Amino acid sequence: MRCDIVDAADYCIEFETSSGSQSCFEQCRIARYLGTTSDAFCSVKIPDTQQLSAKPRKFIGCETDGTYFIDFGGSNNTYVEACFSGGYKFHEESRAVFINGGRWANQTTCTVRGHQIVINAGDVLAALTLEGSGPITVGPTNFTGLTTDNGTAGQNLVYHSSVAYTPSLASGGTAPALGDGTLTGRYTRNGAIIIATINFSFGTTTTLGTGALRFGLPMTRYNGNIVCGNGAIMNDSGTLYNAECQIPGAVAYVELIRDTSGSVTFNSPATWATGDTIRMTVTYEI
Questions:
Q1: DSSP 3-state of 13
Q2: Where are the beta strands (DSSP E) in 72-205?
Q3: In this predicted model, what pLDDT tens digit does every residue of 179-216 receive, in sequence order?
Q4: Region 214-237 average pLDDT
Q5: Which of 15, 62, 142, 242 is the most buried (most CB within 10 A)?
Q6: What is the CA 215 to chain-centroid distance, rounded?
Q7: Among residues 79, 147, 83, which one has the least CA distance to residue 109?
């Protein structure tokens, strides 16, 4: 408690062997010299080889002077609570890492990988990229950067408020072209649930190709089942049409289905013209 371990030329603390079970560092100042340079200069190191050795290690209310804090390596049960950290480093061997409260202040990007990782820091500067099989849980918390989920098993849970994204425009046949039309999107994520809103307005040079229109989603569905639900409203010069949203499998796009005319295309249920709009909301599970 209340110890200073600072200005070390190497790691301030390194668990070189399968040790450190029940260790607790509370209200300590732990800051490696020049530690803010990159995640190669963390102040604490857990070797990769300790993945299968369950050793609870706790850091509570610690201060790092803005340096990078912990290289989790082969962590198995590491708890970080209410600490001020410049950044962290994760490995595929990192297991059971729990970061709660505090501030993550200087790292602009971080790849989070491993198993049973939970991040609920109070203020996170880093844009996080999730990799590997997980499961990894991120949020709810205050993020400056967006979390990108590249997980391979569909087990990650991410929570964030509404953010903008750029949907793509495609079709089942000849490719369309947006031209001077507008196509915008926003989405939120609540665990494994995505809610996306897409707004499309036809311009003077917009062409729709052939086949069913497809609008890009922010993330691919992991499940291959066909999902229908949520609705779209289409406005053709004041005439309104309704449609259902359909995601046809493990893809990153949504199609629109009419009850009488099938897929929405360049000429169904209307021949679209400048100023016409299509607006939809899509909810799906990844």
A1: strand
A2: 76-81, 84-85, 87-89, 95-100, 103-104, 109-112, 115-120, 123-124, 127-130, 136-138, 142-143, 148-149, 157-165, 169-171, 182-191, 193-201
A3: 999 999 999 999 999 999 999 999 999 999 999 999 99
A4: 91
A5: 62
A6: 20
A7: 147
